[in-house]
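Lab notebook: predicted structure, single chain.

Context: the supervisor wants predicted structures on file for every construct in the current expression panel, including those that have not yet been purified. This is the next one on the list. No modifications to the sequence; it matches the entry in the shared construct table.
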Amino acid sequence: MTSTAAPTTAILGTGIQEGLLLKPIRYQWAYDLYNQAVANTWFPNEIQLGEDLADFERMTDEERHAVTFLMSYFNPNELLVNKALAFGVYPYLNAPEAHLYLAKQMWEEANHCMAFEYVLETFPINRDEAYAAHADIPSMVAKEEFEVRYIERMASQTLDITTTEGKRDFVRNLVAYNVVLEGIWFYSGFMVALSFRQRNLLRNFGSLMDWIVRDESLHLKFGINLILTVLEENPDLQTEEFADEIRQMVLDAVEMEERYNHDLLPRGILGLNADYINTYVRYLADRRLEELGFAAHWGVSNPAKWMATANDTLQLVNFFESTNTSYEVNAQAGS
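Prediction complete. Output recorded below exactly as produced.
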């Protein structure tokens, strides 16, 4: 039987016996991100979250609603990311250094889920209501349906990664999860969560979120680098039509996030309201578009400049150009 796996010089491939030797390293960026992820390892209970209880209890109903709403969204979606990685990414790569990173990322997503469980266990939050929200609130349901639509294609059937359409589905899934979910929607929530610390509230909760943001910044780097590598190695994907589709995914995601943020902060809290968050969302989306090589769409400035170091983690590349200065393709360093 003839193998349908991609050549070992390409990152895409499904051959079981390929990718069994780590050295020489072919994708140095993936190996470097794995080592950084290992160095970043942490555990939720290292943070004394109970010290924030007094803050939580004296917060307004709107502020407590915001924290609960974020937990309602973050908790199931961390596990949804793991399904996207397990079904839609890991099986279609043959580079062992990429597999190493994905294995660490999947552990990190599980660790984030446990971190949010720690929040639910520590703060006086109704767990049943928090769990139900992601299935009951239309704006939250719409976001989850968007993500599920892409992973369903990959979970219900095996992609033929040798075809153009199979490779397109692979890239669509990466954009949906790495760029939209982790790079825009999660970062929007991170900003809201960390805004409490800006007012000297929930400082330990803020430290927990810092550690999660640090992980997610690497997830975003890996996803962007992987998208660009696949595009570089597969010229058949480099069409104007496909580029327009990817760009529209980001624009649609912003509309969904704007509706969600009005449910997150229906009346606003001190120093923060839905319009402020949505300006930040548009700023984030512009950064992600530019990181994929598109022009910024909204052209807004960052209203939360204190979050800038968490946002601008990538060097600019072009969606359809082979030169990517943020990593070395087929690097042999360290081999």
